[in-house]
């Protein structure tokens, strides 16, 4: 959540700042602003979208060649012009932008007020500008280093000073920052997509690192201002991947990218016979002798972990546990050196997930990460990492990240089975190789039908998702997709739990999305659906093509290609994503940027 950009060079800063902020819109925000330095610091900021900021700037002459920009997602203080970033100090000599949360800001604020500082916002961020002001004696780098010692929490900070016109000082602690390296100009951003049009060479800052960025140099220091040597990281993403390519919304584009994304996830990890080739990513010693597997994740990634738990339980005779990272952090951690901790995060920067991982790692757990972002904090701190290779995912609602996570988990489960028991799972992996083509067929066969069905949800207030076994894990993801972008309340239930309370909410025409792909549970699930039909619920049924005739329980039946039962979730999720998308369109919702949500949740 929130986004930071910065520029130091000989060109006007504003064009890069605005374009960079647009590239970071997927992170979620409710206000935007920039500060440029041209003899004096000038801040331009507003509540609303970047388009509102551009309208504000249309009447201004902005020629500064050094600047910072920010998109804010409100935490401390409501979305407003005065709470938007950047923030000044008392003198107007310093301007600051900040991602994250300053946990001790209230005490610092009161201390600074007592010392005579005047605050103009409700934000935690403004204490940073006043702290730097307090320590500033002509050396911006030293002032920032002294100020951050007093901060507690997570932060990525960028500071400009009118008296230091040729430099930008930035610091990272638990909130991502990258420095782009150019020719007589250098760049700053919270995430790589913001700078891809300008450079492919970056420094990825680590926690506790401070960078001084000038037109012709970038120096990186530790907290004590010891100069560090940094390795240049070359980014190999294609910028065209971050464009809509003719689709109405990024989410729809990313739904349709899933066949390619899953294909890329599998590529090079299996041979033509279905044998796994992932030992170079997951060394044998990482999994040798494990007595427990734990999953930690948040949101959609947590639903992927439920899938991973189910598949691993089919293959291993050790305890398999899943936990929400935000809950795991505050429990007594039951992990040791024989625990394999599988950590899932699309961005690799999810604050709760990183915090939980660090707790378990401190207990000795071996960490295997599944993430999409090369160079992310998670990928660097884990003992081993399996990249999903999904490519940039711009829409807030995750689609291709989820299906590629499932593909990774399928391969990890079969690898663990092979390492622990010596038995190969060739049939499952051969079926996985067919999944990309089958996803294509699902979209081709059912997208138009789902678009029509979504019109029934125009005035819906509730929808229920039912499944058993693996279908229940898939139902969890389906309900999340619907509610996060269409704002229809969704609830997922294990089929057998319907009669334990929620059946009271099943009335005539209430939408019920039912998943019926687990062969051993079909009869039980059909009985549950008949209870729904008896009360007038409208059932959209997702079933595999050879599962039987369900015309007596489904009002709308979508038959999906036949696959291994453990791979059915990679197919059932696709129509649920499509349904959520068109339901949001029918209800005139902002599909790519749903209210109150952010793509990368980098605070607790």
Structural notes for this entry:
The chain is 34% helix and 23% strand. With 604 residues, it is an alpha/beta fold. It folds into three domains: 234 residues, 4-Layer Sandwich (Glutamine Phosphoribosylpyrophosphate, subunit 1, domain 1); 194 residues, Rossmann fold (3-Layer(aba) Sandwich), CATH 3.40.50.10490; 153 residues, Rossmann fold (3-Layer(aba) Sandwich), CATH 3.40.50.10490. The chain has an eight-stranded antiparallel beta sheet, covered by helices on one side. Strands 5-6-7-8-12-13-14 form a seven-stranded antiparallel beta sheet, with helices on one face. It has a five-stranded parallel beta sheet with strand order 17-16-18-19-20, with helices on both faces. Strand 19, helix 12 and strand 20 form a beta-alpha-beta unit. It starts with a strand and ends in an 18-residue tail after the last helix.
Secondary structure blueprint with pairings:
Blueprint: E1 3-9, H1 13-23, E2 31-37, E3 41-47, H2 50-57, E4 66-72, E5 87-88, E6 94-102, H3 105-114, H4 126-135, H5 140-148, E7 153-161, E8 167-173, E9 178-181, E10 185-189, E11 201-204, E12 209-214, E13 218-221, E14 227-228, E15 233-234, H6 250-256, H7 258-266, H8 284-287, E16 292-297, H9 299-315, E17 320-324, H10 325-328, E18 339-345, H11 351-362, E19 366-371, H12 377-381, E20 384-387, H13 400-421, H14 426-433, H15 435-454, E21 462-467, H16 470-486, E22 489-494, E23 511-516, H17 522-534, E24 538-544, E25 556-560, H18 568-586
Parallel strand pairs: 16-17, 16-18, 18-19, 19-20, 21-22, 21-23, 23-24, 24-25
Antiparallel strand pairs: 1-4, 1-10, 2-3, 2-4, 5-6, 6-7, 7-8, 8-12, 9-10, 9-11, 11-15, 12-13, 13-14
Helix pairs in contact: 3-4, 4-5, 7-13, 7-15, 9-13, 9-16, 15-18, 16-18
């Amino acid at each position: 959540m929130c986004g930071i950009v910065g520029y130091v060079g000989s060109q006007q800063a504003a064009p890069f700042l605005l374009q960079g902020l647009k590239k970071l819109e997927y992170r979620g925000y409710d206000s935007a602003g920039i500060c440029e330095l041209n003899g004096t610091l000038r801040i331009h900021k507003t509540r609303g979208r970047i388009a509102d900021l551009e309208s504000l700037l249309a009447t201004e002459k902005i020629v500064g060649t050094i600047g910072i920009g920010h998109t804010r997602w409100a935490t401390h203080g409501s979305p407003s012009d005065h709470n938007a970033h950047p923030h000044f100090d008392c003198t107007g000599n310093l301007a600051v932008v900040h991602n994250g949360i300053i946990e001790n800001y209230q005490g610092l604020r009161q201390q600074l007020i007592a010392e005579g500082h005047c605050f103009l916002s409700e934000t935690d961020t403004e204490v940073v500008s006043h702290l730097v002001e307090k320590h500033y004696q002509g050396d911006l780098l030293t002032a920032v280093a002294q100020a951050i010692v007093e901060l507690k929490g997570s932060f990525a900070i960028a500071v400009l000073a009118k008296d230091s016109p040729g430099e930008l000082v930035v610091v990272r602690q638990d909130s991502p920052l990258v420095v782009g390296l150019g020719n007589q100009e250098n760049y700053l951003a919270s995430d790589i997509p913001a700078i891809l049009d300008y450079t492919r060479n970056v420094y990825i800052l680590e926690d506790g690192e401070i960078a001084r960025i000038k037109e012709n140099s970038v120096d990186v220091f530790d907290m004590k201002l010891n100069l560090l040597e940094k390795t240049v990281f070359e980014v190999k993403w294609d910028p065209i991947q971050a464009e809509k390519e003719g689709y109405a919304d990024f989410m729809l584009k990313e739904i349709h990218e899933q066949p390619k994304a899953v294909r890329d996830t599998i590529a090079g990890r299996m041979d033509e016979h279905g044998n796994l080739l992932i030992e170079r990513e997951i060394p044998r010693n990482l999994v040798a002798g494990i007595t427990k597997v734990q999953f930690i994740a948040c949101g959609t990634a947590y639903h992927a972990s439920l899938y991973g738990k189910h598949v691993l339980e089919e293959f291993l005779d050790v305890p398999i546990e899943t936990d929400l990272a935000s809950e795991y952090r505050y429990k007594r951690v039951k992990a040791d050196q024989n625990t394999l901790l599988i950590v899932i995060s699309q961005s690799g920067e999810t604050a709760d997930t990183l915090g939980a991982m660090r707790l378990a790692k401190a207990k000795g757990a071996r960490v295997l990460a599944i993430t999409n972002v090369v160079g992310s904090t998670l990928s660097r701190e884990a003992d081993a990492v399996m990249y999903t290779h999904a490519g940039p995912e711009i829409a807030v609602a995750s689609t291709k990240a989820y299906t590629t996570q499932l593909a990774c988990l399928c391969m990890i489960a079969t690898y663990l089975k092979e390492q622990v028991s010596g038995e190969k799972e060739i049939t499952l992996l051969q079926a996985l190789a067919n999944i990309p083509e089958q996803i294509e067929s699902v979209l081709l066969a059912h997208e138009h039908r789902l678009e029509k069905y979504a019109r029934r949800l125009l005035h819906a207030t509730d929808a229920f998702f039912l499944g058993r076994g693996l279908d229940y894990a898939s139902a969890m993801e389906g309900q999340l997709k619907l509610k996060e972008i269409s704002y229809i309340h969704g609830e997922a239930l294990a089929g057998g739990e319907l009669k334990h309370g929620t059946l009271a909410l099943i009335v005539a025409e209430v939408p019920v999305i039912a998943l019926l792909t687990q062969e051993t549970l079909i009869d039980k699930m059909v009985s549950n659906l008949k209870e729904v039909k008896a009360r007038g619920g409208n059932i959209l049924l997702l079933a595999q093509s050879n599962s039987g005739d369900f015309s007596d329980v489904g009002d709308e039946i979508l038959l999906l290609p036949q696959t291994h039962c453990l791979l059915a979730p990679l197919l059932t999720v696709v129509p649920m994503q499509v349904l959520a998308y068109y339901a949001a369109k029918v209800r005139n919702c902002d599909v790519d940027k749903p209210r109150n949500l952010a793509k990368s949740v980098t605070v607790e």
